[in-house]
Amino acid sequence: MAALRSLFSRLPIRWKLAVWSSLLLCILFVLYNGVQYFTINQWMVSEGKVSIRKSMNELQTLLQEKHLSAQEIVNSRRLFENLNDRHQMIRILNQQGVPLLSVSNELPEDWFLPQAARSTQIMTAWHLEDQVLIMRSPLNSDHFTGTIEIINNMENIEKISDKIKAVMIAGGIGAIILSALGGVFLSRQLMRPIQSMTDTMIRIRKKGLHEERVQVSDNNDELSNLGKVFNELIDQLERSFLQQKQFVEDASHELRTPISIIEGHISLLNRWGKHDPAILDESLRVSVQELERLKGIVNDLLELTRAESKNLEQDVPAIDISHTIQYTLTNFKMLHPDMIFRGELTLLEQVQVHITPQHLEQLLLIVLDNAVKYSGSSKEILVIGTLERNEVCIHITDYGIGIPTEDLPYLFNRFYRVDKARSREQGGTGLGLAIAKQLVKRYNGDVKVSSIEHIGTTVTLYFPKPELDMLDK
């Protein structure tokens, strides 16, 4: 038994499913056929009892109506032979239990001894391998008192029972074979998605995550859902690896310049600047500036990575955006007292959007900071709130140098700068709009830029209205 258990434990899951399903179906079939066979057998015995009672009633009625004496009963053999059935014996006994008449049709008379009865009896008995049904009933008439004994060999019932048993055995063997084949087929169907996932994992191990996914059916069952979850997990892993790769590439690209500058100045100090105060002061000043720039790049990269690593925000309460916009403008004016900030937010009063106040403020600061940096000689920034269809729009416009048309498609790329020299002078890292894009996407929104060179630029933030707000409108 231990060896069998050990062998079974080493079988693949597919064969375990096939064996267990076949065994279960076999057990169910055996139990069902056993109950069915027992029920049919009992029913046939019950029908035999009904038949023998009917024969007994006919004999009782006949003997009582004819008022036969003992001698007349002995002389009526022909009558009883006609009344007797096949595989049956009729015996008429006197009061002492001695047979007066015995009529048998293919049933030996010596199988069972005659026995007088004071009350009606019916029973089953066995003679070797033959099952018989015995009924004894007292007979009381005007001219005779004794016992009628009928013994019926249930050979026909046994033949039918044997045929039923043979059919059930043959059907059981066929059912076992079919259940085994069905179990193998069913296990293959159930294991196909799992095998597909295994094959996909092997290909991923050899080739990487690129375009390796499990083929998922549209059955919407547990296995297809498992395949969908697996594909989503692989997609997330691939995005994470791509983000990590992009982060390393961007960081190495952007950090190279300030590190090279710092390295150059340290080399300069090492050669000639140790005893030259002018060179020492200049190198320290530039190195501090580049270190601040390095710090800003690292902070922006981390912020961008956090923004990209999160999915759509769920269950974020709606806020009054006009209040948050006005609050941000007020604070931003204190940082740039020489600028003029005009806000037209009447249409956004009591309009709510699902976003956290911190993220909305961060978005506004990114766009306002860019507007101030590239406003040129103009000192005016315009913030307008509008409602368009099912969206809430925030337009931030500056009247500065503008952006060339060919540069507009690349504004949301990491570290992209329209004028690299001007951006470095103003301390930009080229990550602000990329961060803004990711933050807006987290709230199922969008950000777009329109610009005319030497006239100005408008950045528009789009947010979906809450459903309740749309109904009220």
Summarize the structure.
56% of the residues lie in helices and 18% in strands. The protein has 473 residues and is of the alpha+beta class.
Sequence stretches where pLDDT stays below 50 over 5 or more residues: 469-473
Oligomer category: single chain
Overall number of strands: 12
- Structural class of the helix and strand makeup? alpha+beta
Question: What strand order characterises the main sheet?
Answer: 2-1-5-4-3
Number of helices: 12
| Helix-strand pattern | HHHHEEEEEHHHEHEEHEEHHEEH
Biggest sheet character: 5 strands, antiparallel
Straight-line N-to-C gap:
75 Å
**Shape designation:** rod-shaped
Rg for CA atoms: 51 Å
Task: Pick out its properties.
5-stranded antiparallel beta sheet; single chain; 5-stranded mixed beta sheet; alpha+beta; 12 helices; disordered C terminus; 473 residues
Question: Can you walk through the features of this model?
Answer:
With 473 residues, this protein is an alpha+beta fold. Helix content is 56%, strand content 18%. The chain contains twelve helices and twelve strands. It has helices at residues 2-9, 13-66, 70-74, 77-83, 155-207, 222-273, 277-308, 321-335, 357-373, 420-425, 432-442, 467-472, and strands at residues 88-93, 99-105, 121-127, 130-140, 145-153, 318-320, 340-344, 352-354, 380-388, 391-398, 446-452, 456-464. The protein has a five-stranded antiparallel sheet with strand order 2-1-5-4-3. α7 (277-308) runs parallel beside α11 (432-442) and α9 runs antiparallel to α11. The longest helix is centred in the first third of the chain and has 54 residues, at 13-66. The chain is rod-shaped. Residues 469-473 have low confidence and may be disordered.
